[in-house]
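From the shared-data thread, chain only:
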Amino acid sequence: MKIGIEINGVLRDTINKLEQVYKKYQIDKLDGFESTDSFIYEMNLPVTSLNLRNHFKFKDDEEFYSFLFEEFPMEIFGHAVSTETMSFNDLNNFYFEFRNNNEILIVSDEMGKSKPASLFFLSKFGCLIEKVKFYSHSTIKSMWDEVDVLVTANPELIINHPQDKTIIKFNTDYNTKIECKHVINSIKELNNIIKNFIC
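Structure, as tokens:
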């Protein structure tokens, strides 16, 4: 069995770090300065969806993508914290228990400089899984070809997955209303669910 574990929302608290970086560079840095235009940077919290433009105000898509993937990818994707204190200890234990009879890989929807930043993130926390698969909207089929089971927090992947793939939802604030047969609240819970698939 090929088991994919997604970085964003499952292993990495990307949203919380994005909030911190946006506040520091888009709000606090302008505090006390008169704006040359009428545009106001602001956050709409809490983040209840992955349509981030609804929660973080930018002048346009180009500025949004530049902020995430050109200006601050290391701060956002590389220096984010793990979703749980023991995420990577539990992940490595899971890997040791299931690696002999299963293929385990990390998957992540990344663009541009968020790819090396994400590799830094995995290295920083001591991830022992050898295979990492980056994908984008245009290459998502190649990701689905690599997995039988996907552990994800992404609402779009939970809802729109191929019928022959199994989804395990990792609970977050932005996916609580989405129904899924298999749900976990921590990486530690993954062991029992995978054992049930194998049995």
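Residues 14-78 form one domain.
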